[in-house]
């Protein structure tokens, strides 16, 4: 009989304001379905400050994945939803395993408590919510919430999914004894790259426009680049969070020389792949990432990457696919210029990056995750 896996996540496709985990769960579920796993997603209608225009409680399809959306009230990041909890109380006992994504949300707390009550094993994916940058932003309320709620959730999980060794260490630092395992996030590997010219002087930033992404480092770094190569253009593609774009634009107005920067808004699908394939280099001067899916996406597009050491991507340096540097304007600018000024080096990095990305393809990643599911369920079924 096919394995039955219920995914629970605070918000889901087509909501895109909360970053990579939403698309990651979507792609994982699509591949699981292809492998014959019975999958369904339970979520809320949350989409930032607004709501998705979706039917409530009815089973519908999101990009081919069965999903039920429930209303959240009030409209906060915690996403409280009494109808969702009532549905989970009835539904969880019917499934072999529950996979819960994110902490510090009502859906994850409810799903973990109800899975314990039903005796159904759960996999918990914090997706960066226990990383230092995530805790530090609201430590005054997150630290006690960990002690009161999340510690029990993490310890009761049959498996705690980390996307990198660094994330696994942070999970264990907060909750010693957690049963962690590491499966990276996946990436779509294009068979053929888009037929677009790779611009000679184009930097791309792709992701949420949010303080954690390091615009306080990026803007002065770009000014340093502009002082050497004024023709370089930077394209910033991603959703604005909490008015951060206006703060970034104010920073740009204060630096000299002012770099050429354009804000594109969010890009998805083929548009995203074409943007990455057209770039000379991708930059991610983040103050903290549990994985950084955009790095893998850029590598798959054959684009060199410059990232901060707050991202778990030392392999870039080891495999010659990019630069992994201290998160200062000086080091970021130096690394960007080393790619922009040397087209032959950039080509070699791009080729190396494609080889690195091959290890993060969704088909391989899904099989890894399914192996953990099967091991957990088999262990729970032993007499």
Automatic annotation (TrEMBL):
**Does the record bear Glycosyltransferase in its keywords?**
yes
Which EC numbers characterise this protein's activity in its record? 2.4.-.-
Domain Glycosyltransferase subfamily 4-like N-terminal residue range list: 19-186
UniProt enzyme class? transferase
Any one Pfam family match given in the protein's UniProt record, by short name: Glyco_trans_4_4
Enumerate the spans annotated as Glycosyl transferase family domain. Answer: 198-355
One molecular function GO term is: glycosyltransferase activity
Q: Which SUPFAM superfamilies match?
A: UDP-Glycosyltransferase/glycogen phosphorylase (SSF53756)
Task: Tell me the InterPro entries matching this sequence.
Answer: Glyco_trans_1 (IPR001296), Glyco_trans_4-like_N (IPR028098), Glycosyltransferase_grp1 (IPR050194)
Q: Superkingdom of the source?
A: Bacteria
Sorted UniProt keywords? Glycosyltransferase, Transferase
This protein's name: Glycosyltransferase
- Organism from which the protein derives: Polyangium jinanense
